[in-house]
Specification:
Oligomer: single chain
Structural class: mainly alpha
Distance between the termini: 49 Å
Number of strands: 0
Length: 262
């Protein structure tokens, strides 16, 4: 029917980065927002920073997914992304954990592993790095088994960051190095993974292979810039150099407002 066609077309437009058009088409039918229309409207809103609209759309997706573990898990993962963007890390963690449970129970191992990476990342950001490590290790194992190398790269880099927080520097360096090689091989396809790799290598005292100015030019968000401040501070400590405390204090203030404990 018209609603299903609109949903499929809107979702296609999202993949092509045509977010305004996608939202217009997803919201155009008179039928209540659901299914692909809800997902497309939510993603288009999320990618343009309209977090309230995104959460409403994903909540509608979740409401219409009753009885389907896969659909519910997908909706919860997406709502976790919204909460994480808002800095509501405890809520994001709860949603990712439930999404991982539902998706694994439905046999969607790749999607469940992605939810575990997101959960591990949130836990590490909240200062619970030891709790994050099993989720990240399980996800990396699944990605390795199914040959999902880009996702494996992200999992290894997240694990490197968590290991840093537990002061296991040797293991962090090994994980960062593995993740960096994978990210570098796919740099043209995933600049975000490349940036994450550079930051992880700087944090562990390894040579990222590019000057600081190149990394600074790739910083796209406030979170990226905060990570860069922390990465340089950790590198300075490893080298026995002075740390820019004023910048760190500013990052710490923003972290407190964003429900982070690290």
């Amino acid at each position: 029917d018209d609603a299903e066609v609109a949903g499929a077309y809107a979702r296609l437009l999202v993949t092509r980065g045509r977010y305004a058009e996608a939202r217009t088409i997803a919201l155009s039918p008179r039928a209540p927002l659901a299914g692909l229309r809800a997902e497309a409207a939510g993603l288009a809103a999320l990618y343009t920073g309209a977090l309230d609209d995104a959460d409403r759309a994903f909540a509608a997706l979740e409401l219409g997914a009753t009885g389907s573990g896969i659909a519910q898990g997908r909706a919860l993962s997406l709502r976790g992304m919204v909460a994480q963007q808002r800095g509501q890390l405890a809520i994001a963690g709860e949603r990712y954990a439930e999404a991982a449970r539902l998706l694994a129970g439905a046999g969607e191992l790749h999607a469940a592993a992605t939810a575990h990476v997101n959960l591990g990342t949130v836990l590490a950001e909240r200062g619970r790095a030891s709790d994050a490590l099993p989720h990240l290790a399980d996800a990396a194992r699944v990605f390795a088994e199914v040959g999902a190398t880009t996702e494996l790269c992200a999992a290894e880099l997240a694990r490197a960051n968590a290991l840093l927080a537990t002061h296991d520097l040797d293991a962090a360096r090994a994980a960062a190095d593995r993740g960096y090689r994978e990210a570098l091989a796919r740099a043209g396809d995933d600049p975000a993974a490349r940036l994450a790799a550079w930051l992880a290598l700087v944090e562990t005292g390894l040579d990222p292979g590019v000057p600081d100015a190149t990394i600074e030019a790739a910083l796209a968000t406030d979170d990226d810039r905060d990570r860069w401040v922390l990465a340089r501070a950790r590198r300075a400590r490893l080298r026995g150099e002075l740390v820019a405390t004023e910048e760190l204090l500013a990052v710490g203030t923003r972290a407190e407002r964003g429900d982070r404990l690290d």
